[in-house]
Amino acid sequence: MATETSLPEISDLSMEASNQAPRPTPAVYRRAAPVPPDVLTTVYKFPSMEPMRFAYYPANKLFLPLRRDILHRAVIYEGDATRQGTASTKWRNEVHGSSRKIRRQKGSGMARLGDKKSPMLRGGGVAFGPHPRDFSSDLPRKIYDLAWRTALSYRYRRGQLVVLGNDIKIEMDEPRWLAQIMEWSHLGKSDGGSLLVARKLQHNLAQAFLGVEGHGRLKSEDDVDVKDLLKAGRVMIEKRSLDRLLARHSSDLKHTVPSAR
Fold it and tell me: What is the pTM of this model?
């Protein structure tokens, strides 16, 4: 025979719950972000190409994986910025001349024709011709800086980035002597040519490069871009120029915390 039992009141349940000790909150351990290792590069002396010392660079600046999509966007962005956009033609209302109708509308047996400024006549306006415009496109600076370091990393991974510890200069402005230096160092035409990046262009070196077409190109650190880094067979750059370029194109690596106001 079943017996009835009285249910506990709500006040009794609340008292029992208040007497129990609260459960401790489990600790959450977050793994710290890994510190990218440094990569080692050899610093050479120009023009003898003798090793001078070693230098270390962060892997997030000189050992990035290849990103063809980012490099493509950077090259298109640089190409659009170099387009002048000065092509201009005149529409019929901009051509100087009379607006009198050449022949009457009907009765001549020929097609209808307006004034002599018509695009169908020689000397008339140009239909749908080009006009001055701005071809420049937009690209976030962080993506462009990442493309810069990706291009340098691509050359470093392939062993085609030569870091020079001294200034790029020669004693004579003789093209034949410079060509011999480039061929002897395996940096000339037979090896794909080289891009020399210097902070300041020496007069003798600039004059000698005018007569060594195919062996390489000489540019200052302010004139070089991503397309130049990808076009040449090798990249020879002064260490101080490399440091300045890496510092200039590292905006995506700077993590700033906004201040509370």
Answer: 0.74
Q: Kindly tell me if the per-residue pLDDT of 9 is higher than 70.
A: no
User: Is residue 7 very low, low, confident or very high in pLDDT (cuts 50, 70, 90)?
Assistant: low
**Can you tell me whether residue 163 is helix, strand or coil?**
strand
Confidence of residue 172 (pLDDT cuts 50, 70, 90): confident
- Residue indicated by tokens 């004059």: 207
Residue 188 CA to residue 181 CA, distance in Å, equals 8
Q: Residue 177: how many CA atoms within 13 Å on its side-chain side?
A: 12
How close are the terminal C-alpha atoms of the chain, in Å? 73
Amino acid (one-letter) located at 185:
S
Answer for the pair 226, 151: CB distance below 8 angstroms, yes or no.
yes
Q: Residue 111 in contact with residue 120, Cβ under 8 Å?
A: no
Matching residue, tokens 């590292």:
250
| Phi then psi dihedrals of residue 61, to 5 deg | -115, -30
**Residue length of the chain:** 261
For the four alpha carbons of 147, 148, 154 and 157, in that order, the dihedral sign comes to negative
Work out the pLDDT band at 226, boundaries 50, 70, 90: very high
Looking at the predicted structure, is the pLDDT value of residue 1 above 70?
A: no
Tell me the two tokens of residue 7. Answer: 């249910």
How far apart (Å, rounded) are the C-alpha atoms in residues 38 and 61? 9
Within 28-97, residue ranges assigned H as helices are 59-62, 68-82
Phi, psi torsion values for 234, nearest 5 degrees = -135, 160
Pick 52 or 23 by higher pLDDT.
52
